[in-house]
């Protein structure tokens, strides 16, 4: 009998919750914003966005790519994922009125123009994915106001100007992807203060400076696993202090203008798996410790001025991190 009463009580609770969700109204601010976005994005999205309420209304489901949750007496939009549908046109500024967003994913479209500075209003945002678009101008420093951000993907666009040092104001940031843009200047050493940063990719830009400048802050990059600096205009040598980045697994320095000898201390980074030194101006010999490293799988050295007899370890390949690894 007690078991039956418990089951009946549970069913009443579930029914009440569902009824409450059905009776909840979507916040007018979010409805207005999504309808503005709907008007700006074109037919490829509109055909799947049916009804007046993006969170669903009566028999109609939520709009495709829109996730909502209940807060008090209202429903709010918490995720917007509209990717790989060939959206053409400027970044939809109305997105910045969705103040409860935790995920914004508009990747692999044809968005143009700048990211508006109002992006800094999305204080609850954890994931911002705008890669594979045609976005332009400078990366807005207001992104540094998104204190909850853990993943930032701005790669494969046409961003220019310098990397804003305000990105160092993101205490939760773990993954930063800025590769394949037109960024210039030096990489802000302030990024080294990010205690949780695991992956930094600024490859294929027009960046200058030295690694010594990048790691000049004591105790920098404590959690960094993957450092991609390839295909830029970096100069100078590899400082011995780089070995202090003890969690490094991938170090990608290919296609720069770096020179000097390879410090033996680099071979004592305990977790190093992939080391790419190719197509620079390095000289001297590879310290024996590299050939005895317990985890080093691949070291590529082609296109330098090393002494005869120096051989690479493994076969060169371009390393890519899968989407599942993005969200670790």
What does this structure look like?
The protein has 328 residues and is α/β, with parallel strands linked by helices. It is 16% helix and 22% strand. It has 6 helices and 21 strands. The chain has helices at residues 2-23, 28-41, 43-46, 211-214, 288-291, 323-326, and strands at residues 25-26, 66-71, 74-81, 88-90, 103-105, 110-113, 127-129, 134-135, 151-153, 160-162, 175-177, 182-186, 199-201, 206-208, 226-228, 250-252, 259-260, 274-276, 281-284, 298-300, 305-306. Strands 1, 2, 3, 5, 7, 9, 11, 13, 15, 16, 18 and 20 form a 12-stranded mixed sheet that branches. A 3-stranded parallel sheet has the order 4-6-8, with no helix packed on it. Strands 10-12-14 form a 3-stranded parallel sheet, with no helix packed on it. Mean pLDDT is 88; it is low at 1-22 and 316-328.
Q: Average the pLDDT over all residues and give the rounded result.
A: 88
> Radius of gyration in whole Å, from Cα?
24 Å
Report how far the terminal alpha carbons are from each other: 46 Å
Shape: elongated
Q: Write down the secondary-structure element order.
A: HEHHEEEEEEEEEEEEEHEEEEEHEEH
How many β-strand runs? 21
- Assign a percent range to the helix content: 10-25%
Proportion of strand residues = 15-25%
Largest sheet: 12 strands, mixed
Main structural class: alpha/beta
């Amino acid at each position: 009998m007690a078991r039956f009463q418990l089951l009946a009580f549970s069913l009443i609770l579930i029914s009440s919750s569902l009824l409450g969700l059905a009776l909840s109204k979507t916040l007018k601010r979010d409805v207005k914003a999504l309808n503005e976005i709907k008007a700006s994005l074109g037919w490829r999205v509109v055909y799947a966005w049916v009804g007046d309420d993006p969170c669903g209304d009566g028999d109609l489901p939520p709009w495709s790519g829109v996730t909502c949750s209940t807060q008090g007496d209202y429903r709010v939009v918490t995720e917007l994922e509209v990717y790989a549908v060939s959206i053409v046109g400027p970044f939809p500024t109305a997105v910045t009125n969705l103040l409860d967003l935790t995920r914004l994913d508009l990747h692999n479209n044809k968005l143009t123009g700048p990211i508006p500075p109002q992006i800094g209003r999305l204080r609850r945002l954890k994931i911002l994915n705008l890669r594979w678009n045609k976005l332009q101008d400078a990366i807005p420093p207001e992104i540094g106001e998104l204190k909850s951000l853990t993943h930032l993907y701005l790669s494969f666009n046409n961003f220019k100007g310098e990397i804003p040092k305000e990105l160092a104001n993101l205490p939760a940031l773990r993954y930063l992807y800025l590769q394949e843009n037109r960024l210039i200047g030096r990489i802000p050493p302030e990024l080294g203060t990010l205690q949780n940063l695991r992956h930094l990719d600024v490859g294929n830009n027009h960046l200058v400076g030295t690694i010594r400048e990048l790691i000049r802050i004591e105790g920098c990059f404590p959690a960094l696993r993957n450092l991609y600096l390839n295909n830029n205009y970096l100069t100078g040598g590899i400082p011995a202090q780089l070995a202090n980045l003890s969690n490094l697994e991938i170090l990608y320095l290919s296609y720069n203008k770096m020179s000097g000898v390879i410090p033996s201390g680099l071979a004592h980074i305990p977790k190093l798996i992939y080391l790419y030194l190719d197509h620079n101006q390095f000289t001297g010999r590879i310290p024996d410790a590299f050939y005895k490293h317990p985890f080093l799988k691949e070291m590529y050295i082609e296109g330098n001025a090393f002494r005869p007899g120096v051989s690479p370890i493994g076969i060169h390949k371009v390393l890519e991190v899968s989407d599942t690894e993005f969200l670790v």
